[in-house]
Design a protein that fits this description.
Structural class: alpha+beta
Order of helices and strands: HEEHHEH
Number of strands: 3
Distance between the termini: 47 Å
Strand order of the largest sheet: 2-1-3
Helix content: 40-55%
Shape: flat
Number of helices: 4
Strand content: 15-25%
CATH topology: GIY-YIG endonuclease
Oligomer: single chain
CATH class: Alpha Beta
CATH architecture: 3-Layer(aba) Sandwich
Length: about 110
Amino acid sequence: MEHLTKKELKDQYKNRILTGGIYRIQCSGDDSYWLRTSLDMQGSKNRFAFSKNTDSCPEICMLKAWKQYGANAFSLEIVEEIEKKETQTQRQFADDINTLLELWKEK
């Protein structure tokens, strides 16, 4: 296995392809769901998995259902993903994702 220096790891992280988009957290106990945006979809998936593994509700609005049905009743589904273009600023990328969310809310 290749051992990378801190600088190489930092450069690798900064130069990764950033994928954001819309995801849905669904509760199978009562069929409720929450649409959310993310500028870093992998990070959001990791945080959700951590929340499930530690049985700590990811958001206060889900707490009642989380306590009633348990962590295993919740799942994360990616609804739509987009990649950040090299020419986009973080703000432009966030605006694109928010526009995408508005389109999904209309559906």
